[in-house]
Design brief:
The structure is a homodimer. Chain A has helices spanning about 10-20, 35-50, 95-105, 135-140, 145-150, 160-165, 195, 235-250, 290-310, 330-345, 360-365, 390-410, and strands at about 25, 30, 55, 65-70, 75-80, 115-120, 180-190, 200-210, 210-220, 225, 260-270, 275, 280-290, 315-320, 325-330, 350-355, 370-375. Chain A is α+β, with helices and mostly antiparallel strands.
């Protein structure tokens, strides 16, 4: 049933999300790496929906979709992404895109609303080719050289090759028109258990934590796994394992209350069962909203590497390959989401930082930005079992549409605005 | 200069080895995975050399080359392999094939020699598709189902696909003719430092150690690397690292004096920097000539896995995927090599076990077998820097040809036989 006050349609939101899940379905989730056939089909699906919201747009030269309105008045940008991690969940990305589409469908045709919601879909938020390439392109933070250098982490092809294959090579990349938008709003599943644990409906994001990423390389001596005595081995894989265990032992004494760290990828060289690895590499990530804590942990990491190298028999090198400063969410956006939550979610909201990276952190560098979280069942994400109750999806959509209305109306702090 | 007593030509041996190194060269070594273009070209090279030794042969349906002689009298089988590990050394395999070819070239045309040396080149000794598939096919230990199941560890293709691609599909596999050979002799680089350390020229192999291989699987919970608090993580990669360190701590107290163990391969699932690994797998190998020690270590491994699983948060499963009983080398073959070493290497030989697996262990299941080692510089192998002094290569060839002569003559224990 459409909501009378907003002409908002929860069933339409769910139907759209189901339609997107059917493109590239994998078990109860999806497999839509950036520029895969199901990803491109999802973008086409979005482009075809835009006119329903009075918007026009197409896929640009980096794979972004920007739906723009010719309506007068203030413009609010809203959106998320449509590609997925490999064999991952159905809501990470699509939820924010469909909420933005629904807000545009509800608010843009309404003559009582001054202005419009414009819908954005950012390419490669999931980092198959790099780090936030789509939103960075839009804010002007991505050079042609950056595009030249980007490679698919699933294969050996370059981003240029991928763009050619999907027919986007040569298209212009759409850049932000400074001053056009009053800000950017993005909805997302929480991907944690704060909301579920507190029986809450809405997370009002205060900041997005920074991500620091390191390549840690171990160098020993490649040799035969049968003929090389244990005493003379320089096993880079074992050196890596010891380093992982040392991090697990020493980081808790130096971290903050919300710090997290992860070794998500390990590679042994050459990685054959009968060969002692001469080289090993791990990708290591630290996340915190407090850069002082990150500094302290990075220092610890480097001194641990120096100690391990001095002890031998392998050398250890630490290289920082990604630096992420925390991004603050705009106060008036937080107030609008909180007010909408009082109206449509019984006030069951909480202010919280985001421990995951999102395109909103990139958009926040050129305009006010805000984020809204809905609950994740069991906190699970980046896995095909990721899910959210349909009722929570619908409640989140109502809050999102109302927050957009409040932001366009400029009545950001008003609680009873209907 | 050809050796007058044997018409043996050290320069020809070196020239052949250089020619094989030029096919699929990588730095100072080679890259010739099984059924790669340079591997197939190397096999063709060998087939074309066979007539020089009075032999006829071609590549069979599993990629073996068998050069057979029509000369009357006893036949000695000799050989090794021509594919390599990835980006590996130039001598591991080719040395034994060229020694065998040289022995056949010297002895087969000699009317004073009763019988002939027949040359074998076994496919896939390096295990790209399985475990000693070529020599196992020859001794009758490989079913068509085994071939169906074999897959390339470098890619996803099956052995059947690879055989089709290189034009070997449908060719018969040559099987051993029982009673044809008095035995099998194989030369190889030592791949260790025993000979170099003792300033010795020849290793007389007494036995080949068994290899036991295990797949150890860790199961945790895949989740988001930002939003999942440290306290609730079930990180399968960290569980694997801890297990590697525990092996390093506890195996020395239970192993024998010559036991070696290796984790050569680690895989995290899904292996992305922003995802906590929900699964992890390592391939773990133990080698010893004493099965009682292996039994003890396997028991330790399984009890460690049970302890780790009970402690949590991840479960650990140990699966034995390869069982290798030690293979004994024939006493008369050892005596022949030792006698030849006295004649051509100043007696600078030592009896020693082989800690690496070789096709001789497979051949030893159906005929007497022996192995001869030459020194490895720095003990390095399975790496492109693997090398042996040219002078040591030539000395080893002289010993090998003379050992073949002694075995054919049946004067296996005679020291002064020239």
């Amino acid at each position: 049933m459409p909501d009378k006050r907003l002409h908002f349609d929860g069933a339409r939101v769910l139907a759209d999300l189901y339609a997107l899940r059917a493109i590239g379905a994998y078990k109860s989730g999806v497999h839509k790496p950036t520029f895969s056939e199901p990803h491109m089909r999802s973008l086409e699906w979005l482009v075809q929906r835009l006119p329903e919201a009075g918007l026009a747009g197409e896929i640009d030269g980096i794979g972004n979709v920007l739906g723009t309105s010719s309506k007068s008045g203030p413009k609010l940008l809203a959106g998320s992404h449509l590609e997925s991690q490999n064999y991952a969940g159905w809501l990470d990305g699509p939820l924010g895109v469909v909420y933005a589409l629904e807000a545009a469908r509800v608010l843009n045709p309404d003559p009582d609303i001054n202005g419009a919601v414009e819908v954005a879909c950012w390419c490669d938020e999931e980092g198959h080719f790099g780090s936030f390439l789509g939103s960075r392109s839009y804010v002007g933070g991505l050079t042609e050289k950056d595009v030249d250098a980007a490679r698919d982490r699933n294969s050996d092809r370059t981003m240029r090759e991928a763009l050619r294959e999907v027919g986007l090579a040569g298209r212009p990349r759409v850049a932000a028109e400074r001053g056009r938008h009053i800000g950017y709003l993005e909805a997302h599943i929480e991907q944690g258990q704060t909301l579920e644990g507190g029986a809450l409906n809405v997370g009002v994001v205060t900041s997005i934590v920074g991500i620091w990423q390191y390549r840690i390389t171990f160098t020993g001596e490649q040799n035969h796994a049968g003929t090389t005595r244990m005493a003379v081995r320089k096993d880079a894989g074992l050196a890596l394992a010891k380093f992982c265990v040392a991090i697990d032992e020493r980081f808790p004494g130096a971290c903050g209350p919300r710090t997290v760290w992860t070794t998500g990828s390990i590679r042994l060289d050459p990685g054959a069962p009968s060969i002692i690895p001469g080289g090993a590499e791990m990708l290591f990530q630290i996340r915190d909203a407090d850069t002082a804590i990150i500094d302290r942990l990075e220092q610890l990491l480097r001194s641990m590497a120096a100690e391990a190298g001095a002890r031998g028999p392998c050398t250890v090198a630490v290289e920082r390959i990604r630096t992420g400063a925390p991004a603050m969410m705009d106060a008036s956006f937080q107030q609008a989401i909180e007010a909408a939550s009082k109206e449509f979610a019984g006030g069951k909201s909480i202010r919280m930082p985001s421990a995951a990276g999102h395109d909103a952190q990139i958009l926040s560098t050129i305009m006010p930005a805000g984020m809204l979280f809905v609950p994740s069942i069991g906190g699970i994400s980046h896995h095909w079992t990721e899910n959210t109750d349909d009722a929570d999806i619908v409640t989140g959509a109502a809050v999102f549409v109302d927050a957009c209305r409040r932001l366009l109306a400029g009545r950001r702090t008003s609680v009873n605005s209907t």
